């Protein structure tokens, strides 16, 4: 009631990570190292795929897009967190908060849709190996990436506009390290039912449908392998799909645990730790999961950097 008379707040305070002040410096160094690893690892993948023509296949073009979106996804939250850990008042302006939310949703959604595109690509490669090049034409790949981009633009815009409609009056302390949608909703003075309904619906669209599609394409892959069991076929399937499957479970496991499970029994600490998993750990691990044990990537590493060296000698 009295909320309407108070000033509308112009900035939020981000409480950051729930850690002891004594450990602050240790965590700062750790997070900085993680962020640098994420940036360098993903950049390396993008550069390798860009400059090595052996890797201009749909799978690696999707991987390059995934690396790009992982790089941006962690750049949405990490630099601000690192800056706030060093400042006295860890604040973020209202517009900055909404901008962060928009890009967080955009790159998070993009990552989710790209994982589906990659699962579809593996499905075609293993179930229809003879038609692979015709089905996954460069036009089809481009359409898949463009469609993911458009869908996630629409969803991120929708939620950001719905959030901009709310107004915040009394409390401006966010118990999180970035402008998380659900944390912001808890602070709003106006009615948030429409927002919650749409989060539920589009959360299903962004998480459950991609997850089901991925599971379906893996069921197809496994059944097609079991029809003609051969050691070579099984090994090929595991080497190409194993890495994808581990990224998928890490990403969807943590996000689903957070958004689709009832939030009443989550403490703020637990939510923050789980959010750290998918905002920091998944984008950091992607390059390693895909490049370790991957002969193509190692070959590309040699080709791209040795070619450069010989060129600079000439
Ligand atoms: C993303 O994928 C598209 C379509 O396959 C490709 O043309 C583009 O170069 C990729 N972008 C990046 C940054 O890898």
Automatic annotation (TrEMBL):
GO terms for cellular component: plasma membrane. The chain crosses the membrane at residues 26-48, 60-81, 101-120, 141-168, 197-219, 240-260, 272-292. It is a multi-pass membrane protein. InterPro entries: GPCR_Rhodpsn, GPCR_Rhodpsn_7TM, Olfact_rcpt. Residues 41-290 form the G-protein coupled receptors family 1 profile domain. It holds the Pfam family 7tm_4. Keywords: Cell membrane, G-protein coupled receptor, Membrane, Olfaction, Receptor, Sensory transduction, Transducer, Transmembrane, Transmembrane helix. It is found in: Cell membrane; Membrane. It comes from the Eukaryota. One of its GO terms (molecular function) is olfactory receptor activity. Belongs to the G-protein coupled receptor 1 family. This is Olfactory receptor. The lineage of its organism: Eukaryota, Metazoa, Chordata, Craniata, Vertebrata.
